[in-house]
C-alpha cells in the first residue's frame, strides 16, 4: 500500500488546494491577488485523460478537481509533460523558465498572465512538491 496520491486525482487535488492556499508565497506572487478570479485547466501533454480544473477567487483556490468546467468557462489551459510537472514540483526549475523553454504550454489564455504573475506560478508549482505524488497515471 502506498501513501502517494495519483496525480490530478480528487484526493491529490484536495491536498494540493490545501497546500497552495497555505503557502503565502502564492498569494504574494500575484500582480493583484484581489482581482485574480479565474477558472483554469492544468493538463498533461499527450494524455488528454489526465487534467484538473481549478477555480481561483481573489488569489485563493476555491475548487480543484478532475475536469468539471466547460471549455468555454476556462480562462487558461496550461499543459506540460509529467516530467515537466515533476521538475517544477521538485523545485528543480521554476515554472517561468519551463514556460520560456516551451516545456509548459499555454493552449488557451494570455501568456501575459504567467509573466505578470510569475511569482505566484512558481510558488504554486513548487507547492505541488509537498504532496506525495504517484506520477505513474
Description:
The protein has 137 residues and is α/β, with parallel strands linked by helices. The chain has one domain (5-129): SCP2 sterol-binding domain (Nonspecific Lipid-transfer Protein, Chain A), CATH 3.30.1050.10. Helix content is 36%, strand content 28%. The chain contains six helices and seven strands; from the N terminus they run βααββββααβααβ. It has helices at residues 10-22, 24-29, 82-89, 95-100, 111-116, 118-127; strands at 5-6, 38-44, 47-57, 60-66, 76-80, 104-108, 133-134. Strands 4-3-2-5-6 form a five-stranded mixed beta sheet. A two-stranded parallel sheet has the order 1-7. The longest helix is centred in the first third of the chain and has 13 residues, at 10-22. The protein starts with a strand and ends with a strand. The relative contact order is 0.23.
Index terms:
Nonspecific Lipid-transfer Protein, Chain A, SCP2 domain-containing protein, alpha/beta, 6 helices, two-stranded parallel sheet, plasmid, 137 residues, SCP2_sterol-bd_dom_sf, 7 strands
What is the element layout, followed by pairings?
Elements: E1 5-6, H1 10-22, H2 24-29, E2 38-44, E3 47-57, E4 60-66, E5 76-80, H3 82-89, H4 95-100, E6 104-108, H5 111-116, H6 118-127, E7 133-134
Parallel strand pairs: 1-7, 2-5
Antiparallel strand pairs: 2-3, 3-4, 5-6
Amino acid at each position: 500500500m502506498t501513501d502517494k496520491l495519483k496525480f490530478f486525482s480528487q484526493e491529490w487535488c484536495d491536498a494540493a488546494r490545501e497546500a497552495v492556499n497555505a503557502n503565502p508565497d502564492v498569494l504574494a506572487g500575484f500582480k493583484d491577488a484581489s482581482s485574480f478570479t479565474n477558472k483554469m485547466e492544468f493538463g498533461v501533454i499527450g494524455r488528454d485523460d489526465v487534467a484538473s480544473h481549478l477555480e481561483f477567487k481573489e488569489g485563493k483556490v476555491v475548487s480543484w478537481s478532475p475536469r468539471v468546467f466547460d471549455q468555454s468557462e476556462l480562462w487558461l489551459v496550461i499543459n506540460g509533460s509529467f516530467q515537466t510537472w515533476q521538475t517544477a514540483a521538485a523545485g528543480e526549475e521554476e515554472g517561468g523558465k519551463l514556460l520560456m523553454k516551451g516545456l509548459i504550454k499555454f493552449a488557451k489564455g494570455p501568456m501575459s498572465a504567467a509573466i505578470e504573475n510569475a511569482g505566484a506560478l512558481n510558488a504554486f508549482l513548487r507547492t505541488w512538491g509537498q504532496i506525495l505524488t504517484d506520477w505513474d497515471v
